[in-house]
Amino acid sequence: MNAGIGSTVRRKEDLRLVTGHGCYSDDFNFPGQVYGAVVRSPHAHALIRSVDTAEAHAMPGVLAVLTGADTQADGLKRIPHLTAPGTAPDIVLHNRDGSPVPAAPHLVLSTDRVRHVGAAVAFVVAETVTQAKDAAEKVVVEYEPLPAVTDAKVAVEGSTPRLYDDLPNIMIDAEVGDAKATDEAFARAAHVTRLDTWINRVTGVPMEPRAAVGIYDPETKRYTLYAGSGGIVRQKKEIAAILDVPFESVRVIAKEIGGNFGTKNSFFPEFALVVWASRRVGRPVKWTCDRSEAFVSDYMGRDLTVSAELALDTDGRFLALRTKNLSNVGAHSGSYVPLVKGVGLATSGYRIPVAHISARAVLSTTMCTTPYRSAGRPEVIYVIERLVDKAAQEHGFDRVALRKRNLIPPSAFPYKNPQGIVYDNGTYRVVMDRAMELGDWAGFKKRRAEARKRKRLRGIGLCCYLETTGGYPRERADITVLPEGRVDVVVGTLSSGQSHETTFAQCVSDWLGVPFDDVYINESDTDIVKEGGGSHSARSMRLAGIVMGNASDLVIDKGKKIAAHMLETAEDDIAFASGRFTVKGTDRSVGIYEVARAAMDDKALPEDLRGPLGATSDETIKQLGFPYGAHVCEVEIDPQTGHLDVVRYTCVDDVGRAINPMVVDGQTHGGAVQGIGQAVCELCSYDAEGQLLSASLMDYAMPRADTMPSFTTDISQVLTPTNRLGVRGAGEGGTTGALGAVVNSVVDALAEFGVTHIEMPVTPERIWRAIHESKKK
C-alpha cells in the first residue's frame, strides 16, 4: 500500500475514536480526586462589594471556597493572553495618536468588578460534583450593578461608562494604507458601492465542553494540568506565568480535544484554578463545564462592524477600497488577531491599487472574542465579496466577469497588496472557473425555472476567497528511529481533529522510507514535547512539515555516517533510498533499523555516532501561507415563510500540496458547515443589559447534518515556494468562503424583490421581512 505524501490513507486515529477508546479531557480521573464548581456573575457589569463564603464553607464535603482575594494573597498574576497588535510579516497596528496599544487584564477570579455575565467570582472545591455545586449556590456576593454596553458602535461613544478606571474603552484606533491616494481614486471613480454590515458573533460549541484536572505534587513542587486545548506548550508557559513558578515546574497533558475551532486555544481561568486549588487542598481537583456554563464562559468569535466602499472605473476595474473595521473584543483583551488578520487581507485576491482601512478594537460587557476558525479572514472576505456582487447589481456588471477582470493573474506574483502583505503565487481565476464548472453554473437557469414551478425562489452565489495563515512562528520536531522497527516523532503541534497521526506519519514514512504503520506521533505531553506553537491558523502541517523534514534529513545524514562504518566504505559512497543505506554501484546495503541498532550497540562506532538514531529541528518561521479557493452555493427559499434550504454546495480549494486528499476534503466539509451555520442560523445574542439570550442549545441554533447538502469538493495543488512540501494550509478555507457564498446566493434569490443585501444570520424571519418590506415599497 502506498501511504506516502499525496496518498489517500485511512486515518490512524479513527479506530480508537469510533470504538470509544479515545481519552477526552473529562476521561481523566485520579485517586483522591475532588471537584470544583465556579461561582459566576449574573451581572454584565457590577462592582463586587463583598463575597461571603461562610455558609458555603459549612456545607457538607466542602474543602475550600476560593475568591479573588485569595488569588491576590497567593500572588496569582493576570492571564497572559497574546495581545500584540500584529507582528511582522503580518500587519502591525499602531494607534494614530502614538499611544501604545494597551491590553485590558483578565484575572483568574474577579476581584473588584465583573465585566460580563459568567465572569468567575469564586471557586468551590468539594468531595463530589453535587456538593461543590450546592455549596457554590451558598456563596453570597454583594454586587453594585453598573451600566452595560454590548454593541461595539455604542461602546466607542464618549458617553459610554469605562470598563477599567485606568484604560480607555477603545484599545486600538489605527489606520493602514494610503488615505490621500484612496480619496483621489474615489474622486475619479465612475462607480462607488457601499456596504454597512455586521458580521455576527458566534461561538465554537465543541463536542466536549471544557474540562480539566489539576494535580500539585508537594514533593516535587510540580503542577500538572490535564486539559484539551490548542497547544500544550502555550498552556504550560501561561500556567507558569500566572502562578509565578519556574517553567519546568509545570506539566501539561492533552489527549483528544473534543472539538476546538480556536475556541479552546486561548488560556481559560479554570485551567489555573484547578492546579492552584490542588495545591491549596492537597488533592487532585477536577472541573467539568456544563453546556450552558460553556455558552457564557467560552471565548466567542467574529463580531465585526464594517462600513466599506469599493470604487470602480467605467469598465468595472477596481480602483480603491475604503473600509472601517470595528472589532468588539469583549471584556478583556483576549486577542487582537482577528482585527489584524482582517486588515491585512481586506483586499483579498483582487488587484486593487490603493486602500485605506480604519481599524478599531473596543471593549464591551460581553465575553471576550478570540480567534475562531480562520480568524478575521471570513469577515473581510465576506465584505469584499458582498461589495463585488452589490457593485454588479447596482451598476449593471456581470458578477462573474467583474471578478475575472479584477482577480490577480499568475503573472503578477509575487504580489504586494495595498496593505503591504506579499502573496506568494496562485491561479485564482482557474480555481473560480473550476468551482463554477463543478457547481454547474451554466445549468442554473434551468434549475431556477424548475423551482418556480414549485413556487420556490432559487439563487446561486459565488465567493472567491484568499486566506493568510501564520500563527506562532516557532516549531520543533524530535525524530528517533528505534531498532525494534518504530519511528517516534515528537512535535509541538496538537491535533484537534486535523489527523496529525496520519498525515504527519505519511510525511515521515516517505522521507525515511519506513512503513507508514511504524511511525508514531506524540504531541500530548510537555515532559516530552519541549517546544511548539500548537494548532491554529492552519500552521500545523506547514510548520511541522519544515521541522519534521529537517529532522529527517539529519537522521539520514547521521545514518549515512554509521552505515559507512558498518559497510567499511567512505560516507560519500553511501546513498539513501527507500529506507536503506547502499554503497553506490553495489548491492551492499543496510536498512535504517539495522543502522539504529548499530548506533545503540556497536562499541566500535565513534563516540559522536553512538546512542539513539535521532535528530532535532527547532525553527522560527515567519513566512505566511496563502491558501485560496472558490465556493458556489445554491439555495431555495419558500417566499411564503422565508424558509431557506441550501440545496447545492461546491468548494474548490488550493491548499498547495495535499498530503492526504481525503483529510483535506474532510476539513473542507467541516469548515463549510461552520461557515454556513454562521451565515444562516448561529448568533450569540446579548440584550441591552448584557444578558446572553442564547445560552443553551435551545436558543443557539446549530447546523445539522440533515440540513446540509452533499458537498462537491475538488483540490487544486499549485505548490507554494515557501516551504519544502509546498503546503499552504487546509484547515480554514471551508469557513472563509462560506459566508459570502451563502449570502450572495440568498440575495440573488431575492433580487427580483429589489433586495440588495441581507444581514447574517439569514433566518427565515429576516428573509420574510425582506420580501414583505420590498413589496410595501
First-residue to last-residue Cα separation: 65 Å
Fraction of residues in helices?
25-40%
Structural class: alpha+beta
Radius of gyration, in angstroms, nearest whole number: 28 Å
Strand order of the largest sheet: 3-5-1-13-10-11-12
What low-confidence regions span 5 or more consecutive residues with pLDDT below 50?
none
Q: Sum up the overall morphology in one term.
A: globular
> What portion of the residues fall into strands of 2 or more residues?
15-25%
- Strand runs, count: 30
| Oligomeric assembly | single chain
Mean pLDDT equals 97
Characterize the biggest β-sheet. Answer: 7 strands, mixed
Number of continuous helical runs? 21
Summarize the structure.
The chain is 29% helix and 24% strand. The protein is of the alpha+beta class.
